[in-house]
Amino acid sequence: xxxxxxxxxxxxxxxxxxxxxxxxxxxxxxxxxxxxxxxxxxxxxxxxxxxxxxxxxxxxxxxxxxxxxxxxxxxxxxxxxxxxxxxxxxxxxxxxxxxxxxxxxxxxxxxxxxxxxxxxxxxxxxxxxxxxxxxxxxxxxxxxxxxxxxxxxxxxxxxxxxxxxxxxxxxxxxxxxxxxxxxxxxxxxxxxxxxxxxxxxxxxxxxxxxxxxxxxxxxxxxxxxxxxxxxxxxxxxxxxxxxxxxxxxxxxxxxxxxxxxxxx
Amino acid sequence: xxxxxxxxxxxxxxxxxxxxxxxxxxxxxxxxxxxxxxxxxxxxxxxxxxxxxxxxxxxxxxxxxxxxxxxxxxxxxxxxxxxxxxxxxxxxxxxxxxxxxxxxxxxxxxxxxxxxxxxxxxxxxxxxxxxxxxxxxxxxxxxxxxxxxxxxxxxxxxxxxxxxxxxxxxxxxxxxxxxxxxxxxxxxxxxxxxxxxxxxxxxxxxxxxxxxxxxxxxxxxxxxxxxxxxxxxxxxxxxxxxxxxxxxxxxxxxxxxxxxxxxx
Lengths: 264, 264
Known about the structure:
disordered N terminus; six-stranded antiparallel β-sheet; alpha+beta; homodimer; 10 helices
């Protein structure tokens, strides 16, 4: 706590990002000591940097004095092409899919070893699901994850399948061999299913969105109650939406192409 | 450019935020020299800090070497309660409003002297509008802006009306007196209209969303073509959606209340 020698600029930026990273979990509000614990930084350092982040607007204070993510950070983040750029192009097609399904419609990108949810449209009476915008789903247990993985290169697949494959339900596939069979099936059929593999009672159907170079850019899915007839019956609508977004990506290519960057 | 003496931590955080702020305009990709120009910082400083932001994921590089906002920033920003927390609660009601209108549906909060757009649902064939998610609309010329202003305290109104009120079209109200009359009308009727005041050919109808303490939290609007019958005929649907979100805010109050923070 004491001996607060100023460190060079490099690590100050890293410390600020560690503080922001502490909010990437499910905590919406954190106290000074929560942040010190989460980052491993001295309270005095957290206090000083957090105060600067509040001045900027990247963090805000709650009436109780806790810290939360600020609206300024969100405003800047809305310029992210892999999230909002893609979202804007995809929205009319997601909307169309929602109109016919009246279930959860999701848009996700591959980020590290997870599927990161970029958008979710939900009816008020749709079933409870785990995913929320900005949240992550495991690649091996979600339909969007399997659609992303099936269309990725061998290096990405090997890395993902070499990890411990957690069982979320008794139906989660937890061996690389079983998953490789499903990924091959997904490539053949053009869509992926997750049948109560992520949550009991929920079934989802996803299709990959391919960029101009046939690289996978994102995946779109519908999540519905397990009892709701055959999930495969949604596959045409899901693939149609994915195809629509892919066409929009190709046609809408700005100079420093969104699509090129989407794969980065 | 030379004499790169390391400055204390405080200003490094500020310099990093200046670099991120440079993306808050309409630029999605910026070169090193663009960033140096926009921030007024030496290229060497921008280069060093931007590299760290890339390592973290707050910035990403395009294939051409430019910088763009990174998906990591977006992931953290998705924890912002005044944007995504509110958005999640509001989405089913926005969706309902979209279903009946098939026009642009917008959700905005008051931020500084602007209405900041948190969400927008658009049909593929809806009219062109200025607003986009993460973008800002003027308080005096937009329906969401007038709805927010009409429900705000006298201090907020005076500050907003004391500014230069830009004329976006020949129909924009540019005097405080004319706007005060409309704000009183908005309070009396429960909704605000902007009739070609922001863009020629576009009309919008907005209603304020009030929090548990009757403080204004956000506003919801429908934007439609000017020729599309009387905009007032949408007022009931718009007010209904606003009321639905307000009820959800009150019922859904988490421990460190979203609603309390929303007003902060």
